[in-house]
Amino acid sequence: MINWHDDLPDIKPKYLAITKLIKSLIQEEKLLPGQRLPSERKLAQLFEVDRSTVTRALLELTSSGLLIKKSGSGTYISQLPQLHALPTRVNWHLFLENNKTSYSSYQSKITQTRALDNGKILDAAGNELPMELIPNLGSLQMNWQSFLLAQKQSQDAGYLPLIQTIGHIHEQKKQFKLNDQTLLITGGAQQALLLVLRSLLNVGDSVAFAQPSYFNSSAIFKTVGVRTFPIPLTDTGMDLNILEDVILKHRIKLLILNPTFQNPTGEIISLEQRQRILKLCQEYQIAIIEDDVFGWLVDSKDEVPTFKSLAPENVIYISSLSKLLGSSTRIGSIVAPETIGQRLLQVQKKLDIVPSMLAQVMANLALTDETLNAEINKLTKELTTRRNNITKILQNLKPDWNFKTPKGGFYLWIKQSDPDIFEKLLKENILVKPGPIYGTTKQDFRFNFANFDLDKQKKLRSALAKDK
Ligand SMILES: Cc1ncc(COP(=O)(O)O)c(C=O)c1O
Q1: 436-447 per-residue burial string, b: 16 or more CB within 10 A, e: under 16
Q2: pLDDT by residue (tens digit) across 266-291?
Q3: Domains identified in the chain, total number
Q4: Of 147, 203, 327, 465, which residue is most buried, by most CB within 10 angstroms?
Q5: Domain span at residue 209?
């Protein structure tokens, strides 16, 4: 509601005050392009000024292109208000302020510290594997002619041999069967998630995910304009009473889960909890997105049936090569019920976010390399050794740090009582990811142990011993 008289700036002459007010109303979008202004007579009454004063102000605004006079019908805000009449310099600061989050300062401190790395940083803040642990697949051969030929095998869903390879791996690992499902290749898991949200949701729709969760700091929810609701993780898994409450209050459409080696807790959701979550979601007709980016690293003895295998029609399954071959690989995949898969393909094409053929051909070479399985075994063994050594160091030197030892993955989720832990560890050159990034408190933090070879383990031990 515009308060014409009271909002008039206290300046003279009066016609200038009127032009200033109308300009700022346009700038603040309280007056919109195409909107009709009250008549001159009415404006004179509203402003409590002479009609000639209003006429003069409107004339000024018309000649600067902000208003348009249509004879016989009145004065309108121009469809394209000439912005040169308004301050010409964009206030970039406002854009930056708008995008600030409660954890931005941590992110930038982590980035700055890495940039200044003097070789002393013990980096436990990474999301992925260190380079030295990425499977060594020797010399993958791709010649130009075979690449050109490969392009003939490109389909809407991606490079056919890669689709077949990934499908075969899912079936071989007994993760699920591909009957009546579409498998499509994406540019990583993040892009897969963006595609699913863009294809299935409208602005203002609601989704839920765990707290803490990697998804808490993902920009895609804001990009798509969906509302997010955190569901606390307790010692026994996701709080299903709160989940049901949130479902009922906020008409949740999708539940997004990262059920195996969850980022950041490293937990695996038990079969019993998976079944309870599924039952609840089936009762309220909620689709599940299963983000299984760490699925490559799970030992067969610890494997729990995927949500996708338990309810193929209700679950969209997302995977990626980022946690196995490095995040710059930018290759991921989605497995969705056919009707949904077709929709995803249409949107992917429309948005032109089809992943590069070059990357797809290379990914297929890597996934069909005969040494891959042996390399994955080597990797998981080394991760277990690093995890065991790091947990021993922490248990000895930091008995007040509480964590559960995860069965695999890269992360320890540590709880302790000092809210300044991030800064204090940074002083010791130890970089971790604090809880607010994942939607919890400053007392929690995530520690990526994958990066700690024997030398770094030794350095960590002395840094923490000094701090004792
Ligand atoms: C749970 C989870 N999902 C998705 C991603 C993003 O994966 P990608 O690099 O394939 O986009 C990550 C990366 O850290 C992750 O931890």
Answers
A1: bbbbbebebbbb
A2: 999 999 999 999 999 999 999 999 99
A3: 3
A4: 327
A5: 143-368
